[in-house]
Amino acid sequence: PASNPRPTTWADFWDVEKFPGIRTLVSGAYGSEGPWEEALLADGVPAEQLYPMDIDRIFTSLDKIKPHIRKWWGAGSEIQQMLHDKAVDVAQSYDGRALLLIDQGAPIEINRNQAKLQWDYYIIPKGGPNVQNAQKFIEFVTRADRQAAFCQIFPQGPTNRNAFKLIPEKIARKLTSNPDYMKSSVTINGQWYNDIGPDGLTNTERLVQRWNEWVLQ
């Protein structure tokens, strides 16, 4: 209820005594996408000190929340269904899935503090047959006015910050890269996931192995 305290950090999400209820978190089966940063933040690691991540500490933290997770979701549609059916009380979610339900009138609110932020990229293959046209396309779709227009069709945060000068405030409040939200967001370090250790495995591969063993325990 709005009159009661609500979880605003990952430490709160992990605090099942103060905030009782059924949880859902992303599965770690894919390695590069998992509840890793959340587990460390919940365990008191400052956001600016997350990387390199301590994998042992991650799973020690996950041990504490595991009994309270109804489902480790692997796709956005699963979150949307659980939220729609009120199958969970507190959920980690892609903001787009939650926003869709909110726009449909669902009694859901988003807390963006300590949100994980990930950028998408356009890549042009070297030696491709249409490099110049690809460059023109990327130049066009990354213009502030084009990104501002796109955001009003689909609520994904623009990478060109100047787009916010052209976006109505009501819509700007829905977007992940809104400057107000980014102040408390955590940017994912993609390089760390690709780093290779002395065993020849990337950190992503190491997380997958550890997850597959842990989740069956």
Identify the notable features of this structure and list them briefly:
3-stranded parallel sheet, globular, mainly alpha, D-Maltodextrin-Binding Protein, domain 2, two-stranded parallel ribbon, about 220 residues, about 40% helix
Structure, explained:
This protein is mainly α. It has two domains: 134 residues, D-Maltodextrin-Binding Protein, domain 2; 50 residues, no CATH class. Helix content is 39%, strand content 7%. It is built from eleven helices and five strands, in the order H-E-H-H-E-H-E-H-E-H-H-H-H-E-H-H. The strands form two sheets. The chain has a three-stranded parallel β-sheet with strand order 2-1-3, with helices on one face. A two-stranded parallel ribbon has the order 4-5.
Structure in a nutshell:
This protein is mainly alpha-helical.
Provide the gyration radius in Å.
19 Å
CATH architecture label name of the largest domain: 3-Layer(aba) Sandwich
Biggest sheet strand line-up: 2-1-3
CATH fold-level assignment of the largest domain: D-Maltodextrin-Binding Protein, domain 2
Q: What is the CATH C-level name of the largest domain? A: Alpha Beta
Low-confidence stretches: none
- Total DSSP E strands: 5
Order of helices and strands: HEHHEHEHEHHHHEHH
Question: Can you lay out the helices and strands and say which pair or pack?
Answer:
Blueprint: H1 10-14, E1 23-26, H2 36-42, H3 55-65, E2 69-73, H4 76-84, E3 90-91, H5 95-103, E4 116-117, H6 131-141, H7 144-151, H8 169-172, H9 179-182, E5 186-187, H10 190-194, H11 203-214
Parallel strand pairs: 1-2, 1-3, 4-5
Helix pairs in contact: 2-3
